[in-house]
């Protein structure tokens, strides 16, 4: 198995799968998470192939995004086998992905899983996180904001985004999260200023 060839193939596969997503889980989300995961792995002394591969593949089989998650995971497994990724490595990739989702609230067992979770959470905050939140909200027919009710994209900042800096697993990610957190706080301040027409 040539690792960089495998990553290239995975990239094409992921591109096809997520090309049309308009909920903030598009191909570029996967690319940012993969690159961030590789970088964090280098800083934390983890297996960077494993972190990057799991970064690319982390949203495959998410119940929000796939009608048949079990089938999606099976197709991914078959594809990795076709690329001659050894069975043990495939199992490591699958294990790293398993507990990544924020909604599940788990801390992954492997360092690479924790790194991918950090990379995924970093992409949920800061300027890009803000863009993804409104994209998701729009795609789901949710209002930007409403003083009277809580199911809005602005509410999502309080439900999730502002809590993420405390949930980072690695020091490298925590440092990046601090800056993005501050950016979101400034953003919200400005948002309310404009909402109340200054
Ligand atoms: P995970 O994929 O880790 O389970 P989510 O799917 O909840 O996490 O979050 C992925 C991204 O989708 C979030 O960062 C956010 O941008 C967006 N998102 C999820 N739920 C909402 C929501 N209720 N309102 C706005 N955006 C949301
Ligand atoms: Ni994700």
TrEMBL record:
InterPro entries: HD/PDEase_dom (IPR003607), HD_domain (IPR006674). Coiled coil: none annotated. Residues 26-125 form the HD domain. This is HD domain-containing protein. It comes from Thalassobacillus cyri. The lineage of its organism: Bacteria, Bacillati, Bacillota, Bacilli, Bacillales.
């Amino acid at each position: 198995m040539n690792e960089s060839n495998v990553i290239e193939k995975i990239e094409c596969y992921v591109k096809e799968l997520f090309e049309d997503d308009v909920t903030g889980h598009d191909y570029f989300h996967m690319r940012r998470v993969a690159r961030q995961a590789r970088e964090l792995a280098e800083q934390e002394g983890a297996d960077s192939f494993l972190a990057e591969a799991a970064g690319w593949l982390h949203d495959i089989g998410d119940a929000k995004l796939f009608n048949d998650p079990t089938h999606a995971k099976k197709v991914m497994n078959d594809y990795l086998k076709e690329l001659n990724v050894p069975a043990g490595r495939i199992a490591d990739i699958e294990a790293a992905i398993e507990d990544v989702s924020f909604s599940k609230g788990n801390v992954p067992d492997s360092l690479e899983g924790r790194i991918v979770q950090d990379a995924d959470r970093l992409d949920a905050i800061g300027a890009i996180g803000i863009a993804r939140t409104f994209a998701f909200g729009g795609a789901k027919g949710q209002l930007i904001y409403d003083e009277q009710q809580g199911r809005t994209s602005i509410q999502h900042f309080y439900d999730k985004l502002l809590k993420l800096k405390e949930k980072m697993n690695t020091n490298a990610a925590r440092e990046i999260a601090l800056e993005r957190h501050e950016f979101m706080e400034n953003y919200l301040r400005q948002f309310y200023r404009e909402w109340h027409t200054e």
